Each structure stands twice: as C-alpha cells, then as structure tokens.
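Could you join me in thinking about how sequence relates to backbone shape in a protein? We need material for that, and I hope you will provide a protein of your own picking. Label the sequence line and the structure token line clearly, so we can match residues to local backbone shapes. Would you write everything just below, so we can both look at the same thing?
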Amino acid sequence: MLAGSRDEVGISMIVSTSSDTTGDQAIEHVLILMAMRDEATPVIEALNLAPLADALDPRLPMRCYRGSLGRLTITLGLAGVDERYDVDNVGSEAAAVLALETIRSYAPDLVISAGTAGGFASRGANIATVYLSQSRFVFHDRHVPLDGFRESAIGGYPALDVSAMAQALAFPTGVISTGSSLEKSDRDLEVLGDNAAVAKEMEAAGIAWVAMLYGVPMLAVKSITNIVDQNNQSETEFVRNFAYASASLTRGLCSVLRYLDGRRIGDLAAVAESAD
C-alpha cells in the first residue's frame, strides 16, 4: 500500500511486541530513515532512488527518495539540513518528526533506521561491523530517577525479531541505544552496559517510539565508526572511519533489502523448535 496513511489505525494502537499481529504481513514497501547526507548518498546511488517531489510538508527540511528492488518499493527519508549551520539534522528529535511524517504519508510495511554508530570491543565490534537490531531500542541519556518515569525515559521500544535474517546474512545483533551526544559520559556508559547495547547512536529510539505508536514493525541497520570502550575520542574516530563505515553500511543495507524481497514479516524470525 503506497497511498493513504495509517490514520484510521490511530496512534492509540500501541503494541507490546512488533510481531504480535504482523507475522503474515507481506513486505512490499520498506521505509528507510537516515540522518546524514553522506550516509544516505551511497545508498541512494546504489538503489537508484529518485527524489519525490512535494513529498512532505514544505516547511520541513526532510527529503524523500523512491525506487524499487525486485518486488520491493523502497522509500528513503532523509532528515535534511539545519540551514543555519549547513549541517545534517542529527538526533532523535528530527528522527521522530521524520518518522511521523513518512509513516503517516506512505504507510510502509516495515521501517528501517539505517546509519552509523559507536560499538564496543568487549561485545565483538570492529570498525565497519554491521549490526542488526534485536529485542528493543533504548535511550541511554534520559536519566529520570522517579518510578515509572525512569522506565518510560529509557524506552524499551520493540525491535522486530530478525534472528533468521541475521543468521542467514551472518550479521551480529543486539540492543541499539540512542542518545543526544557523540561524546562519552560515565553515566551513559553505565546505562549502555545495563542494557548490553551493541551500538550507541542518535536516532533509532526516536524512530522506534513513533513506529510503536503506529504499530509498524521496525529494525535498525547500524555500521560501526568508533569503538566506545577504548581510550579514544569518539569524535576523532567517527571522522576518521566514517567513509569506510558508510560503505559497509550501504553493502549491509542492500543485503538486507535483497533478503526482504518476497518475504513476510514473520519470515525474518527464527522458528522455535517444538519440544518432543
């Protein structure tokens, strides 16, 4: 379904897991959401996506592109530019607005948050390792030490079970964690450790919140630019490794899309073996 929106479903449809009611849903339209132009451009070129004219509210800086791969229709939403400083609109605020506008406008079958991230050597990451999300999306820098608010702030938004796809493509998986800073802080690292996060980035949980509200299954594809649990500066490592990690991201994302072609949501999860 390419036209219309999910307004009739309503944001009151909050799901506890991504796969409760969507296992039989055919994957025909994939929405990819990205923050940075230099991350998105290789993907746009690799998939031969074309700009969508008059796609979203013209007051917004977001831009959209569309194309196909096999039987899949692919829409890519880009967060756009902060024209005051000529930099990309990174962060969960722009990501959530982008997710809201594109999910309502295009009613995708599946949402993918794609981009670069920090990783952890202690959990097996190297530069350009590509991770797929699994279990949940969390925020690591929303510290609200009050009952209920603490858990709500961390999020715990559902990630689609993609264990079968990850095994087939030989991609590691884990919890993706979102924050508003590239720099490392001791408290953030503590929350990242508590959640056993494999990637530290700036958009996925904001997108996951919107996807959860609209009942749309979501996964993330993240390529590692910097190793968080080493004695280094994340910003220096990010700049040094960005092009290499972005090339790995493009290859990984294209592999994911080829796998999705002709499948249903439930096909992405490993089938549990029945007990004898």
